[in-house]
Amino acid sequence: MKKIQMVDLQSQYQKIKGDVDAAILNVLDSAAFINGPEVKQFETELQSYLNVKHVIPCGNGTDALQIALMSLGLEPGDEVITADFTFAATVEVIDLLQLTSVLVDVDYDTFTVDTEKLKAAITPKTKAIIPVHLFGQCANMDEIMAIAKEHNLYVIEDTAQAIGADYKGQKAGTIGHIGCTSFFPSKNLGCYGDGGAIFTNDDDLAHRLRGIVNHGMYKRYYHDEVGVNSRLDSVQAAVLRHKLPLLDEYNAARNKAAAYYTAAFADVEELLTPVKGENTTHVFHQYTLRVTNGKRNELQAFLTEKEIPAMIYYPVPLRKQKAYDSGNYNDADFPNTDKLVEQVMSLPMHTELDEEQLVYITSAVKEFFGK
Protein backbone atom coordinates (compact mmCIF):
# COMPACT_ATOMS: atom_id res chain seq x y z
CA MET A 1 0.00 0.00 0.00
CA LYS A 2 1.21 3.49 -0.83
CA LYS A 3 1.99 5.75 2.10
CA ILE A 4 -1.19 7.57 3.11
CA GLN A 5 -0.99 11.35 2.92
CA MET A 6 -3.48 14.08 3.78
CA VAL A 7 -2.97 15.32 0.20
CA ASP A 8 -1.05 13.27 -2.36
CA LEU A 9 0.26 15.87 -4.78
CA GLN A 10 3.11 13.67 -6.03
CA SER A 11 0.82 10.98 -7.45
CA GLN A 12 -1.50 13.59 -8.95
CA TYR A 13 1.48 15.25 -10.65
CA GLN A 14 2.75 11.98 -12.14
CA LYS A 15 -0.50 11.60 -14.08
CA ILE A 16 -0.16 15.01 -15.74
CA LYS A 17 3.64 15.27 -15.70
CA GLY A 18 4.15 15.33 -19.47
CA ASP A 19 1.70 18.16 -20.14
CA VAL A 20 2.70 20.19 -17.10
CA ASP A 21 6.44 19.86 -17.71
CA ALA A 22 5.99 20.93 -21.33
CA ALA A 23 3.88 23.91 -20.30
CA ILE A 24 6.44 25.06 -17.73
CA LEU A 25 9.29 24.69 -20.22
CA ASN A 26 7.30 26.74 -22.72
CA VAL A 27 7.10 29.58 -20.19
CA LEU A 28 10.83 29.30 -19.50
CA ASP A 29 11.57 29.43 -23.22
CA SER A 30 9.34 32.47 -23.69
CA ALA A 31 10.80 34.29 -20.65
CA ALA A 32 7.36 35.94 -20.23
CA PHE A 33 7.35 35.23 -16.52
CA ILE A 34 4.97 38.00 -15.39
CA ASN A 35 1.65 38.69 -17.14
CA GLY A 36 2.61 36.34 -19.96
CA PRO A 37 0.09 34.87 -22.39
CA GLU A 38 -0.52 31.87 -20.11
CA VAL A 39 -1.99 34.19 -17.46
CA LYS A 40 -4.45 35.79 -19.87
CA GLN A 41 -5.43 32.41 -21.31
CA PHE A 42 -6.04 30.96 -17.85
CA GLU A 43 -8.09 34.03 -16.92
CA THR A 44 -10.31 33.54 -19.97
CA GLU A 45 -10.68 29.79 -19.37
CA LEU A 46 -11.58 30.26 -15.71
CA GLN A 47 -14.16 32.90 -16.65
CA SER A 48 -15.74 30.37 -18.98
CA TYR A 49 -15.69 27.58 -16.37
CA LEU A 50 -17.26 29.78 -13.69
CA ASN A 51 -19.60 31.56 -16.12
CA VAL A 52 -18.53 34.89 -14.67
CA LYS A 53 -17.75 38.13 -16.53
CA HIS A 54 -14.42 38.93 -14.90
CA VAL A 55 -11.57 36.93 -13.35
CA ILE A 56 -8.65 38.90 -11.94
CA PRO A 57 -5.70 36.61 -11.12
CA CYS A 58 -3.54 37.60 -8.16
CA GLY A 59 -0.72 36.38 -5.94
CA ASN A 60 -2.64 34.25 -3.42
CA GLY A 61 -6.00 33.77 -1.76
CA THR A 62 -5.26 36.11 1.14
CA ASP A 63 -4.38 38.87 -1.32
CA ALA A 64 -7.63 38.16 -3.15
CA LEU A 65 -9.63 38.87 0.01
CA GLN A 66 -7.61 41.98 0.85
CA ILE A 67 -7.89 43.42 -2.67
CA ALA A 68 -11.62 42.69 -2.73
CA LEU A 69 -12.09 44.72 0.45
CA MET A 70 -9.83 47.50 -0.88
CA SER A 71 -12.05 47.83 -3.96
CA LEU A 72 -15.17 48.69 -1.94
CA GLY A 73 -14.11 52.12 -0.68
CA LEU A 74 -14.56 51.22 2.98
CA GLU A 75 -13.38 53.47 5.81
CA PRO A 76 -11.42 52.54 8.95
CA GLY A 77 -13.84 51.28 11.58
CA ASP A 78 -16.40 50.00 9.08
CA GLU A 79 -17.59 46.56 10.16
CA VAL A 80 -17.24 43.34 8.18
CA ILE A 81 -19.05 40.23 9.42
CA THR A 82 -17.56 36.77 8.95
CA ALA A 83 -17.46 33.35 10.61
CA ASP A 84 -15.61 32.62 13.84
CA PHE A 85 -14.82 29.08 12.66
CA THR A 86 -12.47 29.36 9.68
CA PHE A 87 -8.84 29.93 8.70
CA ALA A 88 -7.35 33.20 9.93
CA ALA A 89 -6.81 34.77 6.49
CA THR A 90 -10.47 35.78 6.29
CA VAL A 91 -10.29 37.99 9.38
CA GLU A 92 -6.61 38.87 8.97
CA VAL A 93 -7.26 41.08 5.95
CA ILE A 94 -10.15 42.87 7.65
CA ASP A 95 -8.00 43.92 10.59
CA LEU A 96 -4.99 44.67 8.38
CA LEU A 97 -7.06 47.31 6.54
CA GLN A 98 -8.13 48.86 9.89
CA LEU A 99 -11.69 47.70 9.37
CA THR A 100 -13.52 46.07 12.27
CA SER A 101 -14.05 42.33 12.12
CA VAL A 102 -17.28 41.04 13.61
CA LEU A 103 -17.27 37.28 14.18
CA VAL A 104 -20.41 35.17 14.41
CA ASP A 105 -21.24 31.53 15.10
CA VAL A 106 -21.63 28.87 12.42
CA ASP A 107 -24.20 26.17 11.73
CA TYR A 108 -23.28 22.98 13.59
CA ASP A 109 -24.02 20.66 10.67
CA THR A 110 -22.62 22.57 7.66
CA PHE A 111 -19.83 24.59 9.38
CA THR A 112 -20.92 27.69 7.41
CA VAL A 113 -22.11 30.98 8.87
CA ASP A 114 -25.32 30.95 10.92
CA THR A 115 -27.55 33.42 9.08
CA GLU A 116 -29.64 34.21 12.16
CA LYS A 117 -26.51 35.17 14.08
CA LEU A 118 -25.36 37.13 11.05
CA LYS A 119 -28.58 39.17 11.00
CA ALA A 120 -28.31 39.87 14.72
CA ALA A 121 -24.74 41.19 14.30
CA ILE A 122 -25.63 43.93 11.80
CA THR A 123 -25.20 47.51 13.03
CA PRO A 124 -25.22 50.90 11.27
CA LYS A 125 -21.45 50.46 10.80
CA THR A 126 -21.77 47.12 8.95
CA LYS A 127 -20.67 47.41 5.34
CA ALA A 128 -19.86 43.88 4.15
CA ILE A 129 -20.28 40.17 4.80
CA ILE A 130 -17.66 37.52 4.02
CA PRO A 131 -19.34 34.10 3.98
CA VAL A 132 -16.82 31.26 3.99
CA HIS A 133 -17.66 28.18 1.91
CA LEU A 134 -15.89 25.94 4.39
CA PHE A 135 -14.53 22.47 3.63
CA GLY A 136 -16.09 22.38 0.15
CA GLN A 137 -19.72 23.49 0.21
CA CYS A 138 -21.51 26.80 -0.08
CA ALA A 139 -22.97 28.81 2.75
CA ASN A 140 -26.69 29.66 2.61
CA MET A 141 -26.32 32.22 -0.17
CA ASP A 142 -30.06 32.81 -0.65
CA GLU A 143 -30.37 34.04 2.92
CA ILE A 144 -27.07 35.91 2.84
CA MET A 145 -27.88 37.78 -0.37
CA ALA A 146 -31.36 38.65 0.94
CA ILE A 147 -29.85 40.03 4.16
CA ALA A 148 -27.25 41.97 2.17
CA LYS A 149 -29.89 43.48 -0.11
CA GLU A 150 -32.08 44.50 2.84
CA HIS A 151 -29.19 46.27 4.58
CA ASN A 152 -27.30 47.47 1.48
CA LEU A 153 -24.21 45.41 2.23
CA TYR A 154 -21.48 44.00 0.02
CA VAL A 155 -20.93 40.24 -0.10
CA ILE A 156 -17.43 38.82 -0.68
CA GLU A 157 -17.47 35.03 -1.01
CA ASP A 158 -14.44 33.22 0.41
CA THR A 159 -14.29 30.30 -2.02
CA ALA A 160 -10.77 29.11 -1.22
CA GLN A 161 -12.06 25.66 -0.20
CA ALA A 162 -15.01 25.28 -2.57
CA ILE A 163 -13.99 26.03 -6.14
CA GLY A 164 -16.17 23.98 -8.48
CA ALA A 165 -19.07 23.68 -6.03
CA ASP A 166 -22.51 24.72 -7.29
CA TYR A 167 -25.23 26.63 -5.51
CA LYS A 168 -28.54 26.28 -7.34
CA GLY A 169 -26.60 25.90 -10.58
CA GLN A 170 -24.28 28.87 -10.02
CA LYS A 171 -20.62 28.32 -9.26
CA ALA A 172 -19.37 29.17 -5.79
CA GLY A 173 -17.80 32.62 -5.81
CA THR A 174 -20.05 34.07 -8.53
CA ILE A 175 -23.16 34.84 -6.45
CA GLY A 176 -21.98 37.70 -4.24
CA HIS A 177 -20.55 41.01 -5.42
CA ILE A 178 -17.03 39.52 -5.40
CA GLY A 179 -15.66 36.01 -5.05
CA CYS A 180 -12.15 35.07 -3.97
CA THR A 181 -10.19 31.85 -4.22
CA SER A 182 -6.77 30.39 -3.49
CA PHE A 183 -4.66 28.13 -5.70
CA PHE A 184 -2.47 26.96 -2.83
CA PRO A 185 -1.10 23.54 -3.88
CA SER A 186 -3.40 21.51 -1.61
CA LYS A 187 -6.58 23.19 -2.84
CA ASN A 188 -9.01 21.39 -5.17
CA LEU A 189 -7.53 23.47 -8.00
CA GLY A 190 -3.96 24.03 -6.84
CA CYS A 191 -0.84 25.33 -8.54
CA TYR A 192 2.80 24.59 -7.66
CA GLY A 193 3.37 27.66 -5.54
CA ASP A 194 1.14 30.49 -4.40
CA GLY A 195 -1.71 31.84 -6.49
CA GLY A 196 -5.20 33.26 -6.25
CA ALA A 197 -8.00 34.93 -8.16
CA ILE A 198 -10.90 37.33 -7.72
CA PHE A 199 -14.22 37.02 -9.59
CA THR A 200 -17.01 39.51 -10.24
CA ASN A 201 -19.85 40.24 -12.64
CA ASP A 202 -19.66 43.98 -11.83
CA ASP A 203 -17.77 45.91 -14.52
CA ASP A 204 -16.92 48.85 -12.24
CA LEU A 205 -15.59 46.62 -9.47
CA ALA A 206 -13.59 44.63 -12.02
CA HIS A 207 -11.93 47.83 -13.24
CA ARG A 208 -10.97 48.82 -9.70
CA LEU A 209 -9.71 45.34 -8.88
CA ARG A 210 -7.48 45.24 -11.97
CA GLY A 211 -5.86 48.49 -10.95
CA ILE A 212 -5.39 47.59 -7.30
CA VAL A 213 -3.58 44.30 -8.07
CA ASN A 214 -1.05 46.27 -10.14
CA HIS A 215 0.07 49.13 -7.88
CA GLY A 216 -3.10 51.12 -8.47
CA MET A 217 -2.20 51.62 -12.15
CA TYR A 218 -4.67 51.67 -15.03
CA LYS A 219 -2.06 53.29 -17.27
CA ARG A 220 1.59 52.41 -16.79
CA TYR A 221 3.37 54.66 -14.29
CA TYR A 222 0.13 56.58 -13.55
CA HIS A 223 -1.05 55.57 -10.07
CA ASP A 224 -4.69 56.51 -9.55
CA GLU A 225 -5.04 54.90 -6.13
CA VAL A 226 -3.08 53.00 -3.53
CA GLY A 227 -2.66 49.45 -4.76
CA VAL A 228 -0.56 46.37 -4.13
CA ASN A 229 1.74 44.15 -6.14
CA SER A 230 -0.14 40.87 -6.45
CA ARG A 231 0.18 38.91 -9.66
CA LEU A 232 -0.24 35.28 -10.66
CA ASP A 233 3.01 34.37 -12.39
CA SER A 234 3.06 32.68 -15.79
CA VAL A 235 4.48 29.36 -14.54
CA GLN A 236 1.61 28.96 -12.08
CA ALA A 237 -0.92 29.94 -14.75
CA ALA A 238 0.53 27.28 -17.06
CA VAL A 239 0.06 24.63 -14.36
CA LEU A 240 -3.47 25.79 -13.62
CA ARG A 241 -4.43 25.76 -17.31
CA HIS A 242 -3.68 22.04 -17.43
CA LYS A 243 -5.44 21.27 -14.16
CA LEU A 244 -8.61 23.34 -14.73
CA PRO A 245 -10.09 20.91 -17.33
CA LEU A 246 -9.60 18.15 -14.72
CA LEU A 247 -11.27 20.02 -11.84
CA ASP A 248 -14.69 18.38 -12.16
CA GLU A 249 -13.01 14.97 -12.41
CA TYR A 250 -10.91 15.77 -9.35
CA ASN A 251 -13.99 16.85 -7.40
CA ALA A 252 -15.83 13.69 -8.45
CA ALA A 253 -12.94 11.59 -7.11
CA ARG A 254 -13.18 13.44 -3.80
CA ASN A 255 -16.93 12.78 -3.67
CA LYS A 256 -16.33 9.09 -4.33
CA ALA A 257 -13.87 8.87 -1.44
CA ALA A 258 -16.24 10.84 0.80
CA ALA A 259 -19.11 8.48 -0.02
CA TYR A 260 -16.91 5.51 0.93
CA TYR A 261 -16.04 7.10 4.28
CA THR A 262 -19.66 7.98 5.04
CA ALA A 263 -20.95 4.49 4.23
CA ALA A 264 -18.20 2.86 6.31
CA PHE A 265 -19.01 4.97 9.38
CA ALA A 266 -22.80 4.55 9.23
CA ASP A 267 -22.78 2.25 12.27
CA VAL A 268 -20.35 4.27 14.39
CA GLU A 269 -22.64 6.23 16.67
CA GLU A 270 -19.78 8.28 18.13
CA LEU A 271 -19.16 9.88 14.72
CA LEU A 272 -21.19 12.45 12.82
CA THR A 273 -20.29 12.39 9.14
CA PRO A 274 -20.41 15.54 6.93
CA VAL A 275 -23.85 16.98 6.23
CA LYS A 276 -24.56 18.56 2.84
CA GLY A 277 -26.40 21.86 3.02
CA GLU A 278 -29.51 22.63 1.02
CA ASN A 279 -29.06 23.89 -2.54
CA THR A 280 -25.31 23.25 -2.65
CA THR A 281 -23.06 20.54 -3.99
CA HIS A 282 -19.97 19.54 -2.02
CA VAL A 283 -16.44 19.27 -3.42
CA PHE A 284 -14.89 17.89 -0.19
CA HIS A 285 -11.81 20.00 0.15
CA GLN A 286 -11.79 18.30 3.54
CA TYR A 287 -13.70 15.30 4.86
CA THR A 288 -14.47 16.51 8.37
CA LEU A 289 -15.99 14.29 11.02
CA ARG A 290 -17.37 15.29 14.39
CA VAL A 291 -16.25 12.98 17.20
CA THR A 292 -18.99 13.29 19.81
CA ASN A 293 -17.73 11.14 22.69
CA GLY A 294 -14.92 13.45 23.79
CA LYS A 295 -12.17 11.19 22.42
CA ARG A 296 -11.21 13.16 19.30
CA ASN A 297 -7.61 13.67 20.38
CA GLU A 298 -7.24 10.02 21.36
CA LEU A 299 -8.56 8.96 17.97
CA GLN A 300 -6.08 11.26 16.23
CA ALA A 301 -3.22 9.78 18.25
CA PHE A 302 -4.43 6.23 17.49
CA LEU A 303 -4.47 6.97 13.75
CA THR A 304 -1.03 8.57 13.93
CA GLU A 305 0.34 5.32 15.38
CA LYS A 306 -1.07 3.54 12.34
CA GLU A 307 0.57 6.11 10.02
CA ILE A 308 -2.75 7.67 9.05
CA PRO A 309 -2.61 11.48 9.08
CA ALA A 310 -5.62 13.25 10.56
CA MET A 311 -5.85 17.01 11.00
CA ILE A 312 -7.85 19.33 13.24
CA TYR A 313 -9.22 22.31 11.33
CA TYR A 314 -9.48 24.48 13.45
CA PRO A 315 -8.49 23.96 17.11
CA VAL A 316 -9.00 27.56 18.32
CA PRO A 317 -11.83 29.89 17.25
CA LEU A 318 -10.70 33.16 15.75
CA ARG A 319 -12.23 35.24 18.55
CA LYS A 320 -9.90 33.47 21.01
CA GLN A 321 -6.74 33.85 18.95
CA LYS A 322 -4.26 36.26 20.51
CA ALA A 323 -4.20 38.43 17.38
CA TYR A 324 -7.98 38.79 17.12
CA ASP A 325 -9.26 38.57 20.70
CA SER A 326 -11.04 41.91 21.14
CA GLY A 327 -12.54 40.94 24.48
CA ASN A 328 -15.94 41.95 23.13
CA TYR A 329 -17.38 38.49 22.58
CA ASN A 330 -19.67 36.44 24.80
CA ASP A 331 -18.99 32.70 24.62
CA ALA A 332 -22.72 32.03 24.97
CA ASP A 333 -23.16 33.42 21.45
CA PHE A 334 -20.88 30.72 19.97
CA PRO A 335 -22.20 27.33 21.12
CA ASN A 336 -21.65 25.62 17.77
CA THR A 337 -18.15 26.94 17.17
CA ASP A 338 -17.06 26.01 20.68
CA LYS A 339 -18.45 22.50 20.24
CA LEU A 340 -16.84 22.07 16.83
CA VAL A 341 -13.33 23.04 17.91
CA GLU A 342 -13.50 20.17 20.41
CA GLN A 343 -15.01 17.64 17.98
CA VAL A 344 -13.81 18.13 14.39
CA MET A 345 -11.22 15.93 12.75
CA SER A 346 -10.42 15.66 9.04
CA LEU A 347 -9.33 12.42 7.38
CA PRO A 348 -7.09 12.15 4.31
CA MET A 349 -8.90 13.62 1.30
CA HIS A 350 -7.48 13.98 -2.19
CA THR A 351 -7.87 12.79 -5.76
CA GLU A 352 -5.52 9.81 -5.48
CA LEU A 353 -7.08 7.84 -2.61
CA ASP A 354 -7.50 4.20 -3.64
CA GLU A 355 -9.73 1.50 -2.19
CA GLU A 356 -6.90 -0.21 -0.33
CA GLN A 357 -6.10 3.02 1.48
CA LEU A 358 -9.76 3.75 2.19
CA VAL A 359 -10.27 0.27 3.64
CA TYR A 360 -7.21 0.70 5.86
CA ILE A 361 -8.27 4.15 7.09
CA THR A 362 -11.89 3.25 7.79
CA SER A 363 -10.96 -0.06 9.43
CA ALA A 364 -8.59 1.76 11.77
CA VAL A 365 -11.23 4.31 12.76
CA LYS A 366 -13.78 1.55 13.39
CA GLU A 367 -11.23 -0.44 15.37
CA PHE A 368 -10.77 2.53 17.69
CA PHE A 369 -14.50 2.52 18.42
CA GLY A 370 -14.61 -1.24 18.82
CA LYS A 371 -16.55 -1.86 15.59
Account of the protein in words:
Helices cover 39% and strands 15% of the residues. The chain has helices spanning 9-30, 37-50, 61-70, 89-96, 115-121, 141-151, 203-212, 234-243, 247-264, 296-305, 335-343, 355-368; strands at 54-58, 79-83, 100-104, 126-130, 154-158, 166-167, 170-171, 178-182, 196-200, 217-219, 222-223, 271-272, 287-291, 344-347. A 7-stranded mixed sheet has the order 1-9-8-5-4-2-3, with helices on both faces. Helix 1 (9-30) crosses helix 8 (234-243), helix 2 runs parallel beside helix 8 (234-243) and helix 3 runs parallel beside helix 4 (89-96).
Provide the fold topology.
Layout: H1 9-30, H2 37-50, E1 54-58, H3 61-70, E2 79-83, H4 89-96, E3 100-104, H5 115-121, E4 126-130, H6 141-151, E5 154-158, E6 166-167, E7 170-171, E8 178-182, E9 196-200, H7 203-212, E10 217-219, E11 222-223, H8 234-243, H9 247-264, E12 271-272, E13 287-291, H10 296-305, H11 335-343, E14 344-347, H12 355-368
Parallel strand pairs: 2-3, 2-4, 4-5, 5-8
Antiparallel strand pairs: 1-9, 6-7, 8-9, 10-11, 12-13, 13-14
